[in-house]
Inverse folding.
């Protein structure tokens, strides 16, 4: 297992459209394990391969309180969506910023699991939001794209001013910098 480097907005590589995985092999299983390790270490509740500069359609999520319910999706497709919900979203690629975004309340996602076996999962609430957010990453889309251009520009300017690893420093180390 290995920790992966996470790209930060506005890095243009986050805009790459990821390619479908042909065969779920040991390399994909290692990618899944590395994404999970990186997500848990952050800590985060979701991470897409795109964020680690790997442009394959692979993502992981775990919204459980005990961090013991990992889900990995290869070639995920949301084939059903209904209702709306609005929640504060954050992103490991947009460290330190949280804004409300409207998403579908209830989804169904079809994907391959870590053995390459097709499955579907129905999700609602936070898990549904997280899956929609991570699927967006595979198409080069970020939650800031749903905000007003004014808010997005403010976030971009603030992230461009700070060192690229500052999202990983404890809050106390940033105190006094605004
Ligand atoms: C997507 O995001 C998500 O700013 C996953 O300094 C988030 O795990 C979907 C994180 C919220 C729905 C609701 C963010 C870690 C983690 C930060 C994450 C940060 C450190 C974000
Ligand atoms: Co994200």
């Amino acid at each position: 297992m290995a920790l992966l480097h996470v790209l930060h907005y506005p890095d243009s590589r986050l805009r790459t459209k990821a390619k479908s995985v042909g065969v779920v092999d040991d390399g994909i299983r290692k990618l899944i394990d590395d994404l999970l390790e990186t997500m848990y270490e952050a800590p985060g509740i979701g991470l897409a391969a795109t964020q680690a500069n790997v442009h394959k359609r692979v993502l992981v999520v775990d919204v459980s309180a005990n961090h013991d319910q990992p889900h990995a999706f290869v070639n995920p497709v949301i084939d059903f969506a209904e209702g709306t919900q609005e929640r504060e979203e954050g992103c490991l690629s947009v460290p330190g910023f949280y804004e409300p975004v409207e998403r579908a309340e209830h989804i169904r996602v079809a994907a391959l699991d870590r053995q390459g076996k097709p499955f579907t999962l129905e999700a609602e609430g936070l898990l549904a939001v997280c899956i929609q957010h991570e699927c967006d990453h595979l198409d080069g889309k970020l939650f800031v794209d749903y905000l007003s251009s004014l808010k997005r520009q403010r976030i971009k300017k603030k992230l461009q001013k700070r060192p690229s690893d500052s999202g990983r420093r404890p809050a106390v180390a940033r105190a006094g910098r605004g």
User: Anything to note?
Assistant: Residues 167-178 have pLDDT under 50 and may be disordered.
